[in-house]
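Summary of Year 1 activities. Much of the first year was spent building the evaluation harness for sequence design. The harness presents a backbone, in tokenized form, and records the residue chosen at every position. We chose the following record to illustrate the format because it has been used consistently in internal testing since the harness was completed.
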């Protein structure tokens, strides 16, 4: 079993959040992303330190980019590790197992890998396929991510996939994270076990401040 097993939120983190009176988003994990820029030209008005503080306060897990195209680096993963006891996801393409190993060595608890399953600690990797067909081929025990952005169109502002989260959920029975194009909790799709929020993190956090869950979202 991994730290991401049911009921959906790391137990210790759930207890801490409840003690502090902070709202839970049903059983959906919030992976708060620290992102200062993107290849499409977007740039955050906040510094890395400001965004980290927000992610560390509100996230169940913190996502730190390792790719400089998103303002990331392996060094920032190591820096974040020294600043929090929360779970850290190293986010990037990670096209080789050497890059995956570097992220774990820097202190990441989990590493996001795009388009393939690495040989190194696959049980602690979040796998992001490009298509629904690729997702269907993954073992149901995989920690999978469905990104609504087409990473083949990184440098375009209009890069949303034609395939949807609903289609992804329908073919994959396991743990599935919804990523990108989330602004508020209203954007969480049925069946999401987690959401990965970066560009609109501030707006998303505002939307959950007065959230009173009436039922589970998963």
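For this record, the design step produced the sequence shown next.
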């Amino acid at each position: 079993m991994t730290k991401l097993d049911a009921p959906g939120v790391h137990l210790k983190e759930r207890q801490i959040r409840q003690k502090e009176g902070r709202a839970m988003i049903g059983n959906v994990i919030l992976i708060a992303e620290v992102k200062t820029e993107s290849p499409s030209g977007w740039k955050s008005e906040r510094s890395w330190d400001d965004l980290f503080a927000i992610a560390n306060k509100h996230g169940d897990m913190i996502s730190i980019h390792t790719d400089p195209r998103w303002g990331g680096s392996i060094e920032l993963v190591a820096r974040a590790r020294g600043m929090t006891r929360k779970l850290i996801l190293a986010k990037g393409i990670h096209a080789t197992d050497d890059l995956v190993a570097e992220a774990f060595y820097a202190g990441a608890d989990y590493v996001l890998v795009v388009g393939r399953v690495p040989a190194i600690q696959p049980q602690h990797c979040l796998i992001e396929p490009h298509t629904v067909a690729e997702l269907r081929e993954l073992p149901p025990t995989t920690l999978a991510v469905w990104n609504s952005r087409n990473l083949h169109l990184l440098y375009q502002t209009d890069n949303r996939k034609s395939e949807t989260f609903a289609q992804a959920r329908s073919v994959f029975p396991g743990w599935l994270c919804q990523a990108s194009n989330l602004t508020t909790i209203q954007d969480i799709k049925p069946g999401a076990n987690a959401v990965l929020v970066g560009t609109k993190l501030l707006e998303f956090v505002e939307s959950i401040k007065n959230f009173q869950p009436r039922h589970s979202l998963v």
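Confidence is low (pLDDT under 50) at residues 6-24, 214-218. Quantitative recovery figures across the full test set are reported in Table 2.
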